[in-house]
Amino acid sequence: MSDERTPPSPAPRPPEGFETPLHVGQLNLPAAEAFREAFDGIFDRRFFANHGPLEQRLDRELASLFGVRNAVSVVNATAALMLVLRALDLDGEVIVPSFTFPATVQAVVWAGLRPVFCDIDPQTQTLTAARVAPKIGPATAAVLGVHIWGRGCDPLELEALTASRGVKLVFDAAHAVGATFRGRRFGGFGNAEVFSFHATKILNGAEGGCITTDDDDLAARLRTMRSFHDTDERVPGLLRLNAKISEAQAAMTLLGLRSLDSLIEQNRHRYELYRSGIDGTPGIHFLDYAAGETSNHQFIVLSVSPAELGLSRDELLDLLQAKNVLARRYFFPGVHRTPPFCDEGMAELPITDHLCQTLVQLPSGQAVTDADVKRVCAIIRWAATPEGRMAARA
Ligand SMILES: Cc1ncc(COP(=O)(O)O)c(C=O)c1O
Question: Which residue did the predictor score with more confidence, 233 or 372?
Fold first, then answer.
């Protein structure tokens, strides 16, 4: 996962910890003045929700960003997943990874469908056509892939597979705002894709999400289903939900869109700084991104090899947390090990289990300065020294 470089020399003595906790989340905030101005507009119009002007503008701007015919903004990505699975009028099973945020799998159940877990590729950490193909059976209604860390499942091979087997294909692209596959932005693959604008994501709407699709009929169904408020294009006879985005969320997301390119650039800079500070440390491996693709570098993900580092992933985490670096083990445990999914026997997913035991996410986002990154790197380099290992085990 990482290239072999000479590690920067370890810190001679234990590096200082942080006085206040350093979190993993992004929390990219717009300028307060711009937000106040947007809110003044909402107050002046006295229009807070229900297909307001900001919701409509957001749908247009998102469609243009993702290069699709339709973007349907909603209250969050969990509701977006529930809606799209329901709007596709499915019945039966949905093939999903377990290495994901619980919402991916729980949405399947909320939509009245049965999740079937599929293990992932150890390199890309996503579903692949080769792994999904044997799981497709007569009860399969859809495949729900996850573009984990903004690195895509290969959408083209999954599109070919699902088309040939007559099942639908949806992507949970909660992590993938602005990321590309073969130079094309995620958003237009499969039957639909779902994005999150939660405060921990690169595009922060406080809460928010959207569904993107080139299928106009599906989009009309989704626009009807996201709200009880009728518009001219209402499709009759559909189950509906109060999942509409508020004008306040739409305002915040629109402001984030203005600086998306610069946020991606800042994240890339932090990622490279982390790499140059830690690469070569024994037992610490960085997630690689395919050359020529854009990533949003929303997450800084390391994999720990305990045999090389001399510490387990959890011992490293304890040491970081003692220094107020609130790095996380994400995702842990695999969704298949949580109720209700483990209640009727545990799916065998060795690669998922391995990743759940070995991955670490480091702090990133606007609040994390270059000096912070350098200090976190010094702590990790120190953890790989005999003194650091001893301290971690004390
Ligand atoms: C992969 C994935 N899917 C779905 C979600 C749910 O997103 P939201 O919080 O917008 O409902 C998340 C949230 O972190 C996620 O990481």
Answer: 372
Q: What percent of the chain is modeled with pLDDT above 90?
A: 86
Assign 93 to helix, strand or coil.
strand
When pLDDT is averaged across residues 311-318 and rounded to a whole number, the result is: 96
Element holding 303 (H helix, E strand): strand 300-304
What fold is seen in the domain 260-327+363-393?
Aspartate Aminotransferase, domain 1 (3.90.1150)
62: tokens are: 């998102």
Query: Which active-site residues does the annotation give?
Result: 201
Query: Is residue 298 a contact partner of residue 267, using CB atoms and an 8 Å limit?
Result: yes
The domains of the chain are located at: 32-258, 260-327+363-393
User: Which of the four pLDDT bands, split at 50, 70 and 90, describes residue 7?
Assistant: low
- Is pLDDT above 90 for 171? yes
Q: Is the CB of 103 under 6 A from ligand 1?
A: yes
- With a 6 Å cutoff on the Cβ, whether 174 touches ligand 1 is yes
* CATH number assigned to the domain covering 32-258: 3.40.640.10
Mean pLDDT score, 231-248: 94
Render pLDDT for 179-206 as a digit per residue (tens, 0 to 9): 999 999 999 999 999 999 999 999 999 9
Residue 283 CB–ligand 1 contact under 6 Å: no
Between the CA of 27 and the centroid of ligand 1 the distance, in Å, is 15
Pairing status of strand 300-304 against strand 359-362: antiparallel
Atom of ligand 1 nearest to the CA of 78: 11
Residue 68 CA, distance from chain mean position: 20
Q: Whose CA is nearest to atom 13 of ligand 1?
A: 101
